[in-house]
Structures are given as structure tokens and as C-alpha cells.
Amino acid sequence: MSETAPLPLPVARSVASLRQTVKDWRAAGLRIGFVPTMGALHAGHLSLVEMARARADRVVVSIFVNPTQFGPSEDFGKYPRQEAADAARLAAFGVDVLFAPTVAEMYPAGASTTVTVGLVTDRLEGEFRPTHFAGVATVVAKLLNQVRPDVAVFGEKDYQQLLVVRRLVRDLDIDTDIVPGPTVREADGLAMSSRNAYLSSEDRAIAASLPSVLNFAATQLRTGADAAPLIEAGKAELLKAGFGAVQYLDLADAETLAPLAKADRPARLLVAALVGRTRLIDNIAV
Ligand code: AMP
Fold this sequence. Notes:
Blueprint: E1 11-12, H1 15-27, E2 32-37, H2 43-55, E3 58-63, H3 83-92, E4 97-99, H4 103-106, H5 125-128, H6 132-147, E5 151-155, H7 159-171, E6 177-181, H8 201-207, H9 209-222, H10 227-241, E7 245-253, E8 267-275, E9 278-285
Helix pairs in contact: 6-7, 9-10
This protein binds adenosine monophosphate (AMP).
């Protein structure tokens, strides 16, 4: 007999059972919202759930730690998994179904199709995590086909991912509105992330300099300042604060992510840096 307590909301483990539920909703004329996640849920995820609820009659949240978006030396094995606690939070936020498939369900033997998105994946995360976006695009294409939501909410926290998903949906004619959700932050400005759980208290204190550096540089950039010296100073500040490495701190066109010398059009300042063994990313509108 299983000692696992039943989860406090309906859970679909298979694509077939998810599809049955969604089919019934659609037959009843209901609008469907969707929030894909990798679990270890925090207030940032839950803000996306609220956005989906405000735009749909029924909300599906997926929890799937997608192996294909992790590089060989990345944290797939130790990524936090806490399904029972996540399910309790989703139930409290009025989520109608949790879709929590196994890896075998998502990638049955013989699976050999990969979705790759060009251009917007060339730089930044694409440079430092070369296989990441093919994994993201493939799993998001699959999830959108499985749920077939009217609306799906993605966080601006993963800004390049948001652009990749928008491109994918346009290029593959997927009939889902992609809605961006603002980044939810801790009191000191650190963007909430499931990976913040990896930080020691010392590293957590260092991490707070990431949003400060972004905010300071963005304020200067908004006055028309040149990006290059601000980026150099920002990198130096992060290293001085205790980051071990800054992979990028970059001003980019908000739509294409092409590099910019000045914020002379809608722009985004994006950063990836390592504190201890934890890799943190963040970004801000300029
Ligand atoms: P993840 O579970 O990290 O794959 O993230 C699932 C979704 O939540 C993605 O669309 C993320 O961009 C979004 N997300 C992650 N952190 C935050 C945050 N601090 N604020 C808002 N959305 C977030």
C-alpha cells in the first residue's frame, strides 16, 4: 500500500488523461490558461498562475524538470523536487489540474524530433548553455500541443526564453497567446528563483548585488549614457561584491536581443553570473 498522501488537486500523469480533461473543458466552451514550470514553486510562479486565472476559466500548471534543457555538467540531478508542497500551493491558488508527466511519458523511446529556434538564441544564454534553448523549445512545443491552451504565461525573469517561446509560437502557428509575467523579487531585490535554494547565507548576501547593479546601470542607460563603460563598471562591482564570474552583462534590443551601444530604442539589460557554484540570471527593462 502506498504511504503517499493523495494530492489536493487533480493530477494528470499521462498526456492521454490531460487531453481528456482539456477536451471536456473545450467542449463546454471554457477558456484554458496554462503555466509551465519545473516546480519548487515560489511567489513568482504563483503570480503567473494568478495571471492565467484572470485570463481563463480553467488553469493547467505543469511541473516537469525537463532533462533536455540541462547541459551535461548542469544541475538536472540536484534540481529541487517537492511535488506535494507544490501541489498544496497550486490547490490554494485555484489551479484546476496539475500536469506532472514522467520523463518516459514526455520522451518515449525513439523520440527524435528537436525544435530549434534561430537568431534570438545566438547570444547570451545561447552562448553559455549551447543546448539549452533546443531543449526549452522542444518541451514548450510539446506542452503547448498537449494542453492546447488559449493563453500561456511565461516570466520575464527568463527574458530570452520568453522571446524564444514567442518566436516558436509564431513560426509554428501555435494558436496560443503568450503573455509575459513581471519578475517577482525578494525584499532586497533578488529575483525569486528555484535555484536560490542552492545559496549559502553568505552567497545569498552576495546575490543581492545583482539587482542593485542592474538597477544602477539601467538608470544611467535611461539617460542616454554609453553602455560599454557602465557594463565594465557593473562587472567589476559584481566581482567586488563576491561573484566568482560574470558570464555576461549586456545591453540588447528588447525584441531581437542584438547588442546595443546605447539604449536608443526599447532595450533590456541582461546578466548571468556565478556565486559559489550557483548560476544566477536576471534582467531589467531599459
Ligand atoms: P521555472 O520553474 O524556473 O522553469 O519557471 C517557470 C516559469 O516561471 C517561467 O516562465 C519563468 O520565467 C517564471 N519565473 C521564474 N521565476 C520568476 C519570478 N521571480 N517572477 C516571475 N516569474 C518567474
